[in-house]
Amino acid sequence: MPKRLSRAFFSRSVHEVAPDLIGAIILFAGTGGRIVEVEAYHHTDPAAHSFRGPTERNAIMFGPPGYAYVYRSYGIHWCLNFVCEPKGSASAVLIRAIEPTLGLPAMRRRRGVADDRLLCAGPGRVCEALDITGAHGGMALDRPPFEVFARTGEEEIVAGPRIGITKAVDKPWRYGLKGSRFLSKPFSA
DNA sequence: TGCCCGATTAACT
DNA sequence: GTTAATCGGGCAA
Q1: DSSP per-residue letters across A69-134
Q2: pLDDT tens per residue across all 189 residues of chain A
Q3: Is the CB of A135 under 7 A from strand C?
Q4: Is there contact between A54 and strand B, defined as CB under 7 Å from any strand atom?
Q5: pTM, whole model, 2 decimals?
Q6: Angle at the Cα of A139 (from A177 to A147), degrees rounded to 5?
Q7: Is A72's CB less than 7 Å from nucleic acid strand C?
């Protein structure tokens, strides 16, 4: 039985937690699968929402680790983050893509796409497939409806530049499961 | 109060 | 490859 990830797991540096999340299982109300792509955002990073200090939107990032930070992207989509590091560090990992395994009928219905590779290939798609919205921001990751389990065994992890940002574009803080068909974009060799 | 633009996606050409 | 959709956050005034 996989080990449930608790607050101690998320209390470490966001640059340790992010690659350790590749291969982990995330379930929300019983739907989800294996995490195959994430990005790390540290509060000293100009691309992070927390870079300019606490606001109403990013308040969760300044709280304790092990909680969900959900924000609205482009006025349309929801994006899910896991808050990391000791409280006040304001760092988080963006969940960018999942290999969908549990609750496939529900996820297909919510997404309305024919190809399962597009169910959870992107941060907005992940939230639509799992039915995560801003209402779930601030929820603990070790309590229902969230369930997060550690990966079992070794995984081959690749890193590269993050997607969709205009600041700190050179930092290789996007992590993925090598060769996965469920990435939002391939990693360049 | 007004303005610009974004940790995106889908539907175009 | 390009672009519209769509709206709240953050900052200037």
Answers
A1: EEEEETTTEEEEEEEESSTTS-EEEEEEEEEEEESHHHHHHHH--S-GGGSSBSHHHHHHHHT--G
A2: 789 999 999 999 999 999 999 999 999 999 999 999 999 999 999 999 999 999 999 999 999 999 999 999 999 999 999 999 999 899 999 999 999 999 999 999 999 999 999 999 999 999 999 999 999 999 999 999 999 999 998 999 999 999 999 999 999 999 999 999 999 999 986
A3: no
A4: no
A5: 0.96
A6: 45
A7: yes
